[in-house]
Amino acid sequence: MKLIIFILTVIVLLLVALSLCLLALGRQVGILFERISPMGALVNDSGPAVGQRTPAFSLPSLTGGTTVIGPGTKRSTMVFFLSPTCPVCKKLLPIVHSIRKAEDSWLDVVLASDGETAQHERFIERAGLGSYPYVVSAELGIAYRVARLPYAVLLDQDGMIRAKGLINSREQFDSLFNAFEMKFGSIQSYLDAQPAA
After folding, report:
1. Are 172 and 42 in contact (CB under 8 A)?
2. For the chain, first and last CA: distance in Å?
3. pTM of the model
4. Distance between CA atoms of 160 and 148, rounded to whole angstroms?
5. Cα 175 to chain center, whole Å?
6. Using CA atoms, how far apart are residues 135 and 117, in angstroms rounded to an integer?
7. Which residues fall within 8 angstroms of residue 10, CB to CB, at 6 or more apart?
8. How far is 160 from 109, CA to CA, in rounded Å?
9. Mind listing the pLDDT tens digit for each residue in 115-149?
10. Phi and psi dihedrals of 165, rounded to 5?
11. Phi and psi of 6, rounded to 5°?
């Protein structure tokens, strides 16, 4: 009888230990899943190609003045397409702020969207975006073939498209700047150009 109780106790302890190991493993898989995101901004093949000159745009900004995008700006420009109703866009705004601050010596950041002007004016006020050029233009989104948000286009000082893509994280913003510096359209195209190991 004592032997049966001992064996059952050992089995229960083993099951408890195994359950704890499975929970710990499941937690680690969850952490890995959160940390691993697609490498680089997700580039779509529609719209003007990387390396192509962008059309010139001169658009009124909701925050005042006229915003020029494209040739003739003498500084590089990042056009960040967002929407007041996009939760990921709102999550990325602190990152946009830090990019603007860190890259201020050579980069202008323009916020772009389309839709009802009043909704954007409320969003600008609530999100504290009054210091950014903020354009509302369906024409701009159509020109770059923006199908999903948030989306960014990085232009050099001559109005050439140097990187573009769907953005969901800081790492994907960084991939645009890495592609810009390496003179490749995306991190994926850089990796594709490398000889196989």
Report:
1. yes
2. 64
3. 0.75
4. 22
5. 9
6. 10
7. none
8. 16
9. 999 999 999 999 999 999 999 999 999 999 998 89
10. 160, 170
11. -60, -45
